[in-house]
Write a structure and sequence with these properties.
about 280 residues, mainly beta, OB fold (Dihydrolipoamide Acetyltransferase, E2P), 4 domains
């Protein structure tokens, strides 16, 4: 049975304490009575999360944790004692984060990005907010323009830092963000660029054409949806562009420059228009 993860186990017997479940290797584990499904049958399979109870005994639950082993989650600190912090991970069991695994001292009531792993010395599930040591861009598993899953970790003056597919780190530049993004958000994103030093640039909209300009295809699709014409141009006010497309004027001008160069649009005095072949 894999500790800190979901296991599909067989119901062996029903007792006053709960159900005893087993795997194909003869291992057994208790599912306490309070976690029992409304209907069940002996011999039926159940998907459960396996962890250690407060007496370090393996036990399981049908509750859904906010993270599993070797993954990241956004957790609230529920308690701090002389040994470390305890995080609410969505089940009855809390996740322990020792002081030496805290990027900064944790405070009760605050939320943190935490990685859960198995401590090889104690055989206990523990957490760490020193997330950078569990990320690496050395051997990249992503490519430019690929759609990825991201977890927002923190916001800086330069941009928004994110964990990519649970293994790499990346950055959204502020110039390309026009949505309300907060630490802990999970979302889809796209790789816009991989730099020579293997740092990864991210965008929220799919990059298009031969350019890495992330907003060109967005405006192209908006033009198609609007019947081929948008009443926005380089003399439009920043507010008009922001209200109409959710873009800054700088990003708008850069994007329409790409579309014009690719001969996708015509620039008119009162707006922009798709060329005839693209309508």
């Amino acid at each position: 049975m894999k500790l800190g993860d979901y296991n599909t186990l067989t119901i062996l017997r029903d007792t006053s304490s709960g159900l005893f479940l087993g795997d194909d290797k003869g291992n057994e584990i208790l599912l306490p009575g309070k976690f029992l499904p409304e209907k069940f049958e002996i011999g039926e399979e159940l998907k459960v999360f396996v962890y250690l109870d407060n007496e370090e005994r393996p036990i399981c639950t049908t509750q859904t944790p906010d993270l599993t082993i070797n993954t990241f989650g956004y957790l609230k600190c529920s308690d701090v004692n002389q040994y470390g912090a305890f995080m609410d991970m969505g089940i009855d069991k809390e996740l322990f984060v020792p002081f030496n695994e805290q990027a900064r001292d944790m405070q009760v009531g605050n939320w943190y990005i935490v990685y859960m792993y198995l401590d090889e010395v104690t055989d206990r599930l523990v957490g760490s907010s020193k997330t950078n040591k569990y990320l690496s861009n050395e051997n990249l598993t992503v490519e430019p323009f690929e759609e990825v899953s991201v977890l927002i970790t923190h916001i800086t003056p330069l941009g928004v830092q994110a964990i990519i597919n649970g293994v790499h780190s990346g950055l959204f530049y502020m110039d390309n963000i026009f949505e309300d993004i907060r630490t802990g958000d999970r979302m889809k994103a796209f790789i816009s660029n991989i730099r020579p030093d293997k740092k990864i640039d991210l965008v929220l909209h799919r990059p298009g054409y031969r350019s890495i300009e992330p907003n060109a295809e967005y405006i192209y699709k908006e033009l198609q949806a609007a019947g081929g014409f948008l009443g926005l141009h380089d003399k439009s006010t920043p507010k008009e562009i922001q209200d109409g497309l959710g873009l800054s004027k700088k990003s708008f001008k850069k994007a329409i420059g790409v579309l014009y160069k690719d001969r996708k649009i015509k620039l008119l005095d009162n707006g922009i228009e798709l060329v005839e072949d693209d309508k």
